Amino acid sequence: MIHTASTVTTDKNSSLIFGSRLQFQDVGGRNVIPMASRWRPPDQGSYKLNMGFSVDSCLSLAGVGFLVQDADGTVRAAMKQRMVLCDDKLQFQATVVLAATVVLAAVKFAFDVGFRSLDVDMSYSELYHLLQSEDPCLAFIGSLVDDILLIKNSCNDCKFSLIKSSCNKASFSLDYRALSSATSQVWFDHCPVNISSHVLFDSS
Asked: Looking at residue 197, which CATH number applies to its domain?
């Protein structure tokens, strides 16, 4: 199994780990599902859900961002928030747990604000395979997988898709900005001004 993550060091005291760019590729024993190379709108009547997270390992903080768009690409809901992490959540295995935690928080947000037909994009291959499996999840993130599937099964329709992180600039920008703000923000039927150009780029 190959694990990659991009890291940007801003100065000697601050290292930003872009967990939203964390990707997993399985080789041997499992089919590799190709990731979509561009953002695609959902079917009419459904809503596309994208999410991302960034981690500042020096400050033990994570910024998360969620974005819900309709078939026209219009932003119907968005959220950004900052999370405080324990030291053990900065290890690689715990970063996988964080990825599952972010996906769970994203689908719960979308469900709680009323969206029941979801097309969920993610860049986490390992988590994607666990969500697609019909077997009980015995992995260390099994309880998180079960909680995600519980919300999925409560929706009228919910499916998961793999997408390259480069096609998800809008939610990446949102989660990065969340790192610098202690206040959570939610938008309904309004695109946050500071990510509008990224929304247009992703959907172009």
From this structure: 3.30.420.10
